[in-house]
Amino acid sequence: MANDTLPAFIRWAANRLPVDLVIWLKRFRREEHAWQRRQRALRAHLSAAGAASRTLRSAGGPVTVMERGYDAIRSVSQNVSQVGDALRAAGVEYVRLPNLVPFDPILVIRQDELHSTLDALAQLRAADGWSVRIEDARHRALTAAASRRRPSGVFRIVVSRRIVGPSGHLMSTPRESVAIEPWVRTREGEARADGSTHVAGTVRRRSSRRGPFVEYLTPQAWIRAVGGDHALDWPGPHLYHVTEPIDVVYTWVNDDDPQWQTRKRRASGRIDDEEVNDTALNPSRYANRDELKYSLRSVEAYANWVDHIYIVTDRQVPDWLNAEHPRITMVDHREIFSDASVLPVFNSHAIESQLHHIPGLSERYVYMNDDVFFMRPVSPELFFTSSGLSKFFPSRAPLDIDDASPRDLPVLSAAKNGREFMILHHGRTVTNKFKHTPHPQLRSVLQDMEAEHPDLFRSVASSKFRAAEDHSIASSLYHFHAFALQRAVVGDIAYDYVDIAGPRAALRLEWFSYQGRLDVVCLNDTDVDAAGQEQVSTLLTDFLERRFSIASSFEL
Fold it and tell me: Are 396 and 337 contained in the same domain?
């Protein structure tokens, strides 16, 4: 089957053929099967032997394999450095434009140096995972020959490096690619967008779309940037740039721990079954499949601007974790509960209500469940504004209008209770739940909230298992309350959710393996019986080990 028809065939087959066959075809297309990886290694060897070839490569083909400590932001810097070295070696001047985020780098060259640039990029070794794509104004691919014949048709060159982990799965994303834009020189008296005229020799963007921060460079600005390590720098941080430290807080439990199981059995024997929803005691709520290990890998890979990571547990430490890592702190429930006599608790709502008590925690922090994973490089500005506000991500799923009751899933009853809080204390109603994403928090807002509503926090903290009277403070009520206080704003995040016990979960996970347009995904199950636990665990572990096979520095 022709390569260009295979994606269309896979889309057609997705809902018509067995899931296993569709997954096989997807991996075949990406050359992920073991026999394909062996062929790819052979092609890389042959390519290295014939490195004198000056033909530009297309996407796919050889890759760079990394075993440990992948960091996309570091990868961006390395990519820019190596592309810059190639341009300098060919005598091509370039300028790196400033950017609010540390990824999606753009280098500017003069259009009359396009041929020299293409020659320089041809020296990047395909055996090292490099590929080059030349695009016109509509992002359509151009051949190298066509680009040389008609340089004015080239609007962008995208230089990428494919990095995979031990599983053979791609870890690098399009956000780490280096974009090179050929800009044209202006003539004396050429009109500027603001109504003035350009200085002769100024280089400007050719695209009709407005540039994000810089649209032209005067000769003086060009010389200054080239002399300053080829980078155009702002005199200070951008107004929208978050400069304050941001921590991450996880809650984690190992349900296989015999001592924890004993504590849970003793606590569960003291509750009235009619007071809680059946799912509050379901083993799947506490199942540990080492998701935390892979979530931490995703943090190091795609959000390594995080300052410190706190892991909140009940007298447990993951056996794979380097607890002595300088950026990791284990926090026991006894350190943060205002009233330690209510412990032990087995209710995430109760634990979340005490997170802002963590000693040394930054004012800005992101609360995460271990079933949430970053899928591409993200910036601090996704979660906070530089003016000190947190962001939140409401779901389109509406709350029903009935009062909370034990027949509601705990997340729904907690949301309804939050609605009552907002009506009572702010005179405003709320209508929607929240996406299963990271939850940005401002510590001072929660401290003030607890000081004003101590009975609420005491009640939630003492709730051993999820109950109909709970409030979800950290992952729901905080956002509404902070918004009403003008301390939070609605944000926008590229996100998706998978019920890993669903009938076509395997196919959705396979799609997430390659999808490059998501910031985060949540892989969750709320009600899996004992018979289905092994199947769900195998499915999830296989996905995580393929997608995040590069070990992080947080592991032993």
Answer: yes
